[in-house]
């Protein structure tokens, strides 16, 4: 194990099983709907790639790059869109895919924006939910796991652009990011 890691929370096998389960649930819920899956870059790209392969429906895939962190380890609440969608959400059922939900500021902002743009519905799929860090009320419709208020890396999640390629989810030792 990498010396910067404190502990492994979820193995490759656990991740694979959870993604398969979420894909089946989404397939069932979006039957006969116009599904538009939007990944929030960069962290969601691995989860989203695995997830859409488990959804047995026609769908449109797109990405947004959004930030409420700047250069900080915690969200400051100010949301900036760095890359917007390539297609319209109007009349579509949007599923926003996120690696981890922390404060909730970013997703709440995007949800309101998509509703204003005319989406039929907006729901969230997050692989990890750091519920004790939540600053805004929101429903996570498809959730992999709840995690503690530690710094989490792996399976797309990073610290200073490192650790995204780990095939498992782990916590980072505090001395690494403090």
State the gist of this model.
The chain is of the alpha/beta class and 178 residues long. The chain has helices at residues 12-29, 45-53, 105-116, 174-177; strands at residues 5-10, 35-41, 60-67, 80-83, 93-101, 121-129, 142-146, 152-153, 169-172.
Search tags:
single chain; 178 residues; Rossmann fold; 6-stranded mixed beta sheet; 3-stranded antiparallel beta sheet; globular; purine salvage; glycosyltransferase; hypoxanthine phosphoribosyltransferase activity; Hxn_phspho_trans; nucleotide-binding
CATH architecture label: 3-Layer(aba) Sandwich
Shape verdict:
globular
Strand order of the largest sheet: 4-3-2-5-6-7
User: Average pLDDT value?
Assistant: 93
Task: Tell me the CATH topology.
Answer: Rossmann fold
- Which secondary-structure class do the elements indicate? alpha/beta
DSSP summary, beta strand count: 9
Determine Rg (CA atoms, Å).
16 Å
Instruction: Summarize the amount of helix as a percent range.
Output: 10-25%
Distance between the termini: 21 Å
Number of helices: 4
The H/E string reads EHEHEEEHEEEEH
Low-pLDDT windows of residues: none
Total domain count: 1
């Amino acid at each position: 194990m990498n010396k910067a890691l404190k502990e492994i929370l979820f193995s490759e096998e656990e991740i694979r099983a959870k993604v398969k389960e979420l894909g089946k649930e989404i397939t069932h819920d979006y039957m006969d709907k116009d599904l538009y899956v939007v990944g929030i870059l960069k962290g969601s790209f691995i989860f989203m790639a695995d997830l859409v392969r488990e959804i047995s429906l026609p769908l449109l895939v797109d990405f947004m790059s959004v930030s409420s962190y700047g250069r900080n380890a915690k969200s400051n609440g100010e949301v900036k869109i760095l890359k917007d969608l390539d297609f319209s959400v109007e009349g579509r059922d949007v599923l926003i895919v996120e690696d981890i939900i922390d404060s909730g500021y970013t997703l709440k902002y995007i949800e309101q924006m998509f509703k204003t743009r005319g989406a039929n519905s907006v729901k969230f799929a997050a692989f990890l939910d750091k519920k004790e860090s939540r600053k805004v009320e929101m429903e996570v419709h498809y959730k992999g796991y709840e995690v503690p208020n530690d710094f989490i890396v792996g399976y797309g999640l990073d610290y200073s652009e490192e650790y995204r390629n780990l095939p498992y989810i782990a916590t980072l030792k505090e001395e690494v990011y403090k």
